[in-house]
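so the lab meeting is tmrw and i was supposed to have these ready like two days ago... anyway. pasting both below. for each one the top line is the aa sequence and the line under it is the structure tokens. i havent really looked at them closely yet so no promises
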Amino acid sequence: MRILFATGGTAGHINPALAVASYIREKNDNAQILFIGTADHMESRLVPGAGFDFKTIEISGFRRSISPKAIAHNIKTVLRIMKSSKESKKILTEFKPDVVVGFGGYVSGPVLQTAVKMGIPACIHEQNAFPGITNKTLAKEVDKVMLTVEDAKKHLESKSEPVVTGLPVRGELLSADRDVARAQLGIPDNKYLVLSFGGSLGARPLNEAMFEILLKSAESGRYCHIHSVGTNGADFLEKFKNEGFIDGKKGTVEVRQYIDNMDICMAAADLVIGRAGASSLSEIEAMGKASILIPSPYVAENHQYHNAMALVNRNAGCIIEEKDLNSKTLEDKINELLSDSKKLKEIENNARAMAVTDSSERIASIILSLAE
């Protein structure tokens, strides 16, 4: 059985594809798997690092601007699309896949469209509640459309009825134990733990809003708090140091540059604060965590807002849009939730009810059925 995955650009596209490919490889000894991506994005590192064969095509997206630089870029993109279709056909002809799977990103477009023209079974997976342009286009052509959340259906016109499969969540998160995690972190039984982060790079608006909150919390000791400033937030670490934090710690507050034990911290947390990327939300749901979501307004189609609203509309999370974010609005929301244990538990239960914990199995089943 020969399966070709096309995805790239961001970890939000690549990691779910790798999780499914790894599941298929584990369950099927005869599966031959190839990934197509680009040479200049993180798939060129992550895919070979996971032990999969990898080939590249040259492709880029369009820029929504009429500046001379954007126009020049878009002309190059048109030429790259023409070239990438030929490159895709060459790879497909040589590999002879039984099925082609797209997990989003610009690279999925030419590969999946070429596969459809060649009569090869094809399917896509959409991670977000508001689909990207590439998957919106492909949904009309491929044999099967898979979705992380039901809400995405209303934004798609598809050839066949979409199937909600959820998004794969790392196994270590699913198996993490709250009591064990809290013991490892030294969290007292009588205190809540708040976990906040803005992604691996960090989010400056969140860091700025959180600064005064963390200083107050370190003095009051009302609850425990672990906050990540991100790899771009080194200046905030210095600011905390100037406020008496030693090795990032003061009172019941710990400030880190990066959280490298997310499974432990997430398992121990009572409230999670962060962006609304699809992978993060799937983890929040799988672990049944109450959350305050601050969607990034800088992403395509404002999809993080729609991701967050999928939880908010089910009373499975709370939202503060970045335009409304400051220390007061965030502190008020934290205090509101931590002072109402009943509401906190209700949000946790609703989040857990949204979880799909066998997502890799569901997606693999659809891929294999098309391949057969």
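ok protien two:
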Amino acid sequence: MNTLNSQSQIVIKVSWISIVVNMVLSVGKLFAGIVAQSGAMISDAIHSASDVFSTLIVMAGVKISSKAADKEHPYGHERLECVAAIVLSMILSATGVLIGYEGVEKILAAEVDILPVPGILALIAAILSIGVKEIMFRYTQHYAKIVNSGALMADAWHHRSDALSSVGALIGIVGARLGFPILDPIASIIICFFIVKAAVEIFKDAIDKMLDRSCDDETENKIRQRVQSHSGVDKIDLLRTRTFGNRIYIELEISVAPHLPLIKAHNIAERVHDDIELTYPKVKHIVIHVNPSIESKL
């Protein structure tokens, strides 16, 4: 419980920093887009504003998922973090489609030669946005790895998506100032593809975590080696792993010497149980069954 609370506190802290940064960025980019007459920068401002709502969803999802198990939910609430990531992906996707639609609408509705040329303020805003959002991506990704939070990692990639969309805006603005104003709304369409791509990746990752997939081969091999290193374990008869949200559950059958008293066999299983949960923080619970070994090492 203490570990879950600590992880939740880290996520909340990082999320509040993200909210403040995104609010400042969205207001600044919107102002620059309006003053400098840049559709791409206004679209980019909308993307940054959507980051605020997505971060709030992350905070809510992580807060709820950190609740202790209860009678109705004996395995805890970890999957609600995946639900938060899925909701985030849908918001991202809708935002991207809207921005792309507006870009296409501007191209179809306006004469190329009368499209406004973005001012220098939009150019400066795009450059600042790229730098700030890349820093936020690395910062959020760092803590997402520490607490193993899928929702926080999704929010990190939301920052990276925003940085990439600012690159698209920068290209459009520079192109427009060089005499190709059509590049500004085209940049909005490019931004759309970046956002939708990020949304699809977040959605797929969240769905994978909700389907109780087994751990990767590397993780299972490390667990297997750790179990076999314990004195008294003759062999592993069965090892099954499954992910539940961002946590791991293990079903394990080990063989021990058939002549061992029940208490000694139990103690071996307890040592294995405690060691695996201590060594691998992602492991929430292990069920261990003890079998009599036909060919014992003892």
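from a quick look at the 2nd one: The two ends are 39 Å apart (CA to CA). The helical segments are 2-35, 39-65, 79-109, 120-147, 150-177, 183-210, 217-228, 262-279. will dig more after coffe
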